[in-house]
Amino acid sequence: MAILLDNDTRVLCQGMTGWAGTHHVTQMMEYGTKVVGGVRPGKGGRSHLNLPVFDRVAEARDATGANASIIFVPPASAAAAMIEAIEAEVPLVVAVTERVPVLDMVRVREALAGSRTRLVGANSQGVLAPGVAKLGVMATGSERPGGVGIVSRSASLTSEVVAQVTAAGLGQSTTVGVGGDPIHGLSMRDCVELFLADPGTDGLILIGEIGGAQEHEVADYVAETRPSKPIVALIVGAHAPAERRMGHAGALALSGAADVAAKVAALEKAGVRVAPSANLVGRVMAEALARVS
């Protein structure tokens, strides 16, 4: 099984007619994802990639039965696109756009409160259920169906860890990129809860970095629930200078709690196995699963 995606996932693309939407939706369709239409205000009634284009998300959902949307909209308009999808009650929304203004994302979080929508992102590489559906911009080719769930703040490290997990003969149930911006939808803890409840996921990999408190939230949750499924973590940024943003907008350590050492200590105290290096994540996961088999 997988989380968030299944064989009945029907996808809209907001911003499908632009270059990025066209390119990545084509790849998603080639992977087997069921894309059913696009949304671009002012272009309703046309077709693109042999799919219908609509002016509004609600109209598109009613016409196609879509239950997911992926957003390729520039930063200045991305929050409005997310809010429109939330108001249209689309169950799953993936926002690829990065560096959406922080105050705009505050408005998005307010719209999410009490809604029926799960938002992944912004600044997410997306969600991938190997052999089922690809909803995002991640590279494919090394992924295989299996029992390891991956939740990550880093797209490039996700690709590396996916390759390691596949090489170890384990495969992945789902990979989820929560996004590298400071304010986003689904959190790492949210994903951990979903993976722990998924009977098709045997173990979890957490890919974190400096900045924010998400890894601490996971550590608190794991310490409280003591799950039987093994969890392996990789936290990067050990040599990043303090108070300097590194790559992602959310990768900024302003206090001791946000640095690598504090996060590693909290996770290890909770019972999470922390890989000492990025090239060892797959091996550590294989060893952890072997211990519980």
Automatic annotation (TrEMBL):
Lineage: superkingdom: Bacteria
Keywords: Ligase, Nucleotide-binding, Tricarboxylic acid cycle
GO molecular function: succinate-CoA ligase (ADP-forming) activity
EC number(s) from the headed UniProt entry: 6.2.1.5
InterPro entries on file: Cit_synth/succinyl-CoA_lig_AS, CoA-bd, CoA_lig_alpha, NAD(P)-bd_dom_sf, SUCC_ACL_C, Succinyl-CoA_synth-like
Enzyme class name: ligase
Record-annotated CoA-binding domain positions: 4-100
Protein name from the UniProt record: Succinate--CoA ligase subunit alpha
Organismal lineage: Bacteria, Pseudomonadati, Pseudomonadota, Alphaproteobacteria, Hyphomicrobiales
Originating gene: sucD
